[in-house]
Amino acid sequence: MKKWTKDIEIDAPIEQVWKFFDGSLNDIQKIMPNVVEHRPVKITNEQVGSVYRQTYKQGERIDEYDIETLEYVNENNKKRKKIGYVFADMVEVTACYELNKINDNKTLFEYTIINRPLNWQLKLFSLFAKKKPVVEFVERVKNTAEFEAETEVSR
Questions:
Q1: CB neighbours (10 Å) of residue 38?
Q2: Which residues pair with 11 in a beta bridge?
Q3: What does the radius of gyration of the chain's CA atoms come to, in whole angstroms?
Q4: What is the pTM of this model?
């Protein structure tokens, strides 16, 4: 099992950042461009237990998997979404996106991901996994949210 956590301050309102994790396919694709489909399979009133089928394309490879919402908080000053899924029948993934409002135009974003390889070969390979993709993802969220917040201000 590998676990990485990274946080970053974003110069954008909390709702501006939250839509990337709890919005439309178009919003999700802004921070996860390889997601080509995100459709509901089962929706619950409280969101926990909701399942979405997601299609992910990297190069010629296409993977489809079901993402279950494990935790969900949507308050004015704090938002949290924890999801779980099995990627390509090889890795069990748990990801958590947590947002805390610092002020009206600044948000603290914390991203945690846990990867559990499902076979021994991948367990050996995971020993060499790096934090770089996590850092790049957090920076992509920051850059995208700040760009959109700036664009809305100048309208």
A1: 19
A2: none
A3: 16
A4: 0.89
Band (119; pLDDT cuts 50, 70, 90): confident
Neighbours of 57 (CB within 10 A): 14
Which amino acid does the sequence have at 84? G
10, 42, 77, 86 from 68: Cα distances, Å:
27, 9, 24, 10
Q: pLDDT for 67-111, tens place per residue? A: 999 999 999 999 999 999 998 778 899 999 999 999 999 999 999
Q: Which long-range contacts (CB under 8 A, 24 or more apart) does 42-49 make?
A: 46/72, 47/72, 47/74, 48/72
HSE value, Cβ hemisphere, 13 Å, CA-based, for 119: 6
C-alpha–C-alpha distance, residues 63 and 56, integer Å:
5
Tokens 């995971």 sit on residue: 126
Sole residue written with tokens 């559990």? 116
* pLDDT interval class at 23 (50, 70, 90): confident
CB 142 within 8 A of CB 15: no
Residue type, 58: Q
